[in-house]
Write a structure and sequence with these properties.
It is a single chain. This protein is of the alpha+beta class and 310 residues long. Helix content is 22%, strand content 35%. The chain starts with 11 loop residues before the first strand and ends with a strand.
Amino acid sequence: MSRRRKGEAVSGWVCLDKPLDMTSTQAVGRVRRLLGAQKAGHAGTLDPLASGVLPIALGEATKTVPFLMDSEKTYRFTIAWGRSTASFDREGATTATSDVRPTAAALEAALPAFTGEILQIPPAFSAVRVDGERAYDLAREGVPVELEPRPVVIHALRIIAQPDLDHVLLEMRCGKGAYVRALVRDLADALGACAHVAALRRTAVGAMTEDRAITLEMLEELCNSGARQEALLPVETALDDIPALAVTQEDAFRLTQGRPIVLLPRQAEALKARLTGGSRTVSAFEGERIVALCEMRAGRLNPVRVFQLT
């Protein structure tokens, strides 16, 4: 006999403003408990030393996590010149020091080489798996970690402010898999300097932006006042880039049963025009309710992920 899962069938997204000194796993657990949800997960880890946007999926929203993880992300971070560390952040052991303080002009001239599609070696203190183990676990044990360079896309990189000679604030908009700490390491090397990340904040993950984020304190207040629904964003929030199709009640029922539906020729043509990057994914809605994520092939929509929402 299967055990009944604890909690309620809460579905939706929480755009959490994660505080410092909390792991992403801890943040997910806190949100799940506050909302009494049966199931929860996050779309992209934030280190304890980083704050900002941590999208947390509850219930049926967990089925859309991969789409948000593939979305663009925006970070604001402060580089501290003069000291390099093992983890490339402020808590790592010092590995080198330097008196070099790059000027804003020198940094500006170096940025184009780190924009666009580049090869980047992830930091040893990262969640990348090496022979089945996390790189950061091996690094903490003193085991030498050699990671292969991988292609990442940096869409934009700009200087925001330079408060003093020792610090500079930058903003980076990037694709999946890019590391701010690796970027700072490589920038410092290119400029003949030593540096580490002194502060890091994620300001956006796809449609989840800083202005939509709520703190744990705000979430707790909403839950205590019986207004927890105000904290939830719709399941489809992660699917902003996915073409949507309105379906009839009959077709919605077929999709929820795992059966395909046949498109009208004009529907198929309209959807094809909206699909980009070789994607065939379409979201099906009955009214305001998302029914399924489907793959479009040969004029049919085949359900891939079905949502059990009321």
